[in-house]
Design goal:
This protein is mainly alpha-helical. It has six helices and two strands, in the order H-E-H-E-H-H-H-H.
Length: 169
């Protein structure tokens, strides 16, 4: 959502003082993760170069902030970023909005974000089911997807559904 502190969190994590972005684009920041174990191994083996692990952060503007469709939270640029993410940080406002004066509604905002993720998952699964039905395939993949669609229909996010390792493929 706009004006909840996403950019402030992003700037705090990355140390970037100015991460303002052009309309519809994303700010990116990469931080190096220092590790004493890597330092110790570098001392022992003396490589030409020591490479630390890195963490990449992306700050995507909310649709309302970019003039996008206000009926949906997840804009196409944000969905594209989420698709490749290993983790998502949901930032919700815990303070009165200084512009509108509206109170903080943490649970409602997080719930709306979660619902948007579930609707996106449902759209992807429906598209895959449609393709499987068109091909006439009623195999294990079809059964697993139907079970996942059922869970989403019950309001359960996919992350809460147990999937066996052979089903995950």
């Amino acid at each position: 959502f706009p004006r909840v502190g996403k950019t402030t969190v992003f700037q705090s994590l990355t140390g970037l003082a100015d991460s303002t972005t052009a309309r519809g684009s994303a700010a990116r920041g990469v931080i190096r993760v220092p590790d004493a174990r890597v330092d110790k191994l570098s001392e022992i083996y003396r490589p030409k170069k020591t490479t630390y692990a890195t963490v990449s952060f992306v700050d995507v503007q909310a649709p309302d902030a970019t003039g996008g469709d206000k009926s949906t939270l997840l804009s196409l640029p944000l969905l594209a970023e989420l698709k490749d993410a290993d983790a998502v940080i949901a930032v919700v406002r815990g303070f009165v909005d200084p512009y509108s004066g509206s109170p903080a509604e943490l649970e409602a905002e997080y719930g709306r974000f979660d619902e948007e993720l579930m609707l996106t998952d449902l759209a992807v699964l429906d598209k895959r089911l449609e393709r499987l039905n068109k091909e006439g395939k009623k195999d294990r993949e079809h059964a697993v997807i139907e079970r996942l669609v059922g869970a989403l229909g019950e309001g359960r996010p996919l992350r809460t559904v147990k999937v066996a390792p052979e089903e995950a493929k």
